[in-house]
Amino acid sequence: RLIILDFGSQYTQLIARRIRELHVFCEIHPFTHAPNLVLTDDIRGIILSGSPCSVREEGAPNPDLGHVLGRVPVLGVCYGAQLLAQQGGGEVLPATIREYGRARLAALDDASPLMHGLHTGSQVWMSHGDTIQTLSAGYAVIASTPEVAVAAFQVEGQETYGIQFHPEVTHSTEGKRLLQNFVVDICRCEQSWTPDHFVDSAVLALQHTIGPTDQVILGLSGGVDSSVAALLLHRAIGPRLHGIFVDNGLLRQDEFATVLKAYEGLGLNVTGVNAAPEFYAALAGLSDPEAKRKAIGRTFIEVFDREAQKVTGAAWLAQGTIYPDVIESVSVKGPAVTIKSHHNVGGLPEKMHLKVVEPLRMLFKDEVREVGAALGLPGEILNRHPFPGPGLGIRILGDITPEKVDLLQRADGVFINLLKEHGLYSQVWQAGAMLLPVQSVGVMGDERTYERVVALRAVTSIDGMTADWAHLPYEFLAEVSNKIINQVRGINRVVYDISSKPPATIEWE
Ligand code: XMP
Fold first, then answer.
1. What does this protein do (predicted)?
2. Predicted confidence (pLDDT) per residue in 246-261, tens digit
3. Which domains does the chain have, with CATH numbers?
4. Is 226 annotated among the ligand-binding residues?
5. Atom of ligand 1 nearest to the CA of 501
6. pLDDT digit string (tens) for 50-96?
7. Whole-model pTM above 0.90?
8. Which end of the chain is more exposed for a tag (fewer CB within 10 A), N or C?
9. Is the dihedral of CA 60, 64, 66, 67 positive or negative?
C-alpha cells in the first residue's frame, strides 16, 4: 500500500482517488503521523500532499522525514516538494510571477523513471505562491516549464522526488502517467485493488470479525452506501444480517415500497417499519431546521432501537460509513466549522451497546458504486441521487404536516420522473423540489387561485462540497412546470433555483 501524508490541501483526496483508479490501495494520514510512521514491508511508498501553507511561514507543517527518506520512495507534490527541497538545504522563495493554472513542460528528463513516457509540451496544472529557487547539491532537476525552473526534481541515489505541479487534476494531461510511473514502476505496488478483490477480502474479514452465531443489525435507507454494506454483509453472513428500513413519512413518492421490493428481490433479510405517524407527531409545530433535524434523528433512534430489540442475539451494528467520513481532516488554517448537523443518527451505537462494523470505511463513493455493481445491486439503487437523512423534512420550509408531505411528494415525483424520461437524471448530482412557506396568486380557468409555490433544485457536483445549479434545458423546465401545476392541486407556481454552492447550500434548510 501507499501512504499519503496530508498537509491540508484541497486535492489530497483526489490524489488518493487517482491512485485507487490505478488499482493500488492507499491511505491518507495527517502529516502529524509522520514521526511515528513505522516502515513495515507493506508500505511501498509515501506521497506528501500540497498545503494551503507556505514552507516559509512560522509554524507551517514541518515534520521530520529523515527516517523515511532513502528507505522507501517518496514523492512530494507542490508543498510536499517544497518541503523536501527546503529540508534538503534548498531555498524556497515567494514566486515573482503568479504560478496558477496551465503551464507546459518545456524540458524534461525522460531518463528519469518519474518522467518516463511524458512529453515535452505536456500541459500541467500549477497552483503555488512559492517557488523552489535553488536546490542543494545532489538534487537534479528533471523537468522545467518556461516560468518554473524546478518543476520536478530527484534526489540522486534515492527514490525521492518532488514535483511543483498537480498530477492528480485532470488538467495535468499526463498526470496519471506520472502517478503510474511512481506508484507502479518506482514503488512497485501491486495493482490488485479491484472491486472483486475487495469483495473477496471484505467478506473474509467480516466472517473473521463477526462471531459464528452473532446477529448483525443494519439501518437501510435505500441509498447506495447502506445497500452495498447490506449486500456485502449478506454475502458474508447470510440471514444473520437483519436490515431495518424505516419509513419516516419523509421519503419520496412510492420510495418505501419500491426499495423494499428491490431488497427482497436481492434476497436480503429486511424488515420495513412504517413509522410515519410517530415522526409527524414528533415534528408537529416545529419549523426551525435544526429542531426538525434533531426531532427526526431522535425519533429514528427510538424506532430503530425498538425494532432492533426484537432481534435476539444482536451483537453488532453495521454502518455504511465511507472513507471521506473517516479521513482525519487536517486543519492547518483554523478549526473547521460545522455548518449543518448532518450526522442525524450519531449516538446510535452508544445507546444500543453494540459493537460497530463498517465494511465500507476504506472506500470512496465511486468505489462503493463499483463494489455495488460487482455485487449485483440494481441500477435503480446504484445510480440513485444522494438524499438527505431527514428527507423531505428539510425540503418543506417551515412546519411539517402530512398534507404538505403529500403535496411535495407529488411535485417531486413529477420532476424526478421527467428527469429520468429525458435522460437527464444521471447528468445531475442531485435534484428535488422544495415546498415554500408562501402562497401566491394565480388564475386557472376563470378562477383566482391562492396556492403554494415549489422551487426546483438540480445541481452538478463531484462530492456535494461545492455545486453549481444544473443548466437544464428551458423546454424541459417548461414541461416540468406545466405538469406540476396541472397535476398537483394546491401548487400554482414553480420556480427554478439558480444559486451555486457556495454561497447557497444544496438543501434550502
Ligand atoms: P448542503 O445542503 O449542506 O448539502 O449543501 C450537502 C449534501 O448533504 C446532504 N444533506 C444532508 N444529509 N442529513 C443528511 O444525511 C442532513 O441533515 C443533510 N443536510 C444536507 C444534501 O442532500 C447534499 O447531498
1. Catalyzes the synthesis of GMP from XMP.
2. 999 999 999 999 999 9
3. 2-186 (3.40.50.880), 195-382 (3.40.50.620), 401-496 (3.30.300.10)
4. yes
5. 5
6. 999 999 999 999 999 999 999 999 999 999 999 999 999 999 999 88
7. no
8. N
9. negative
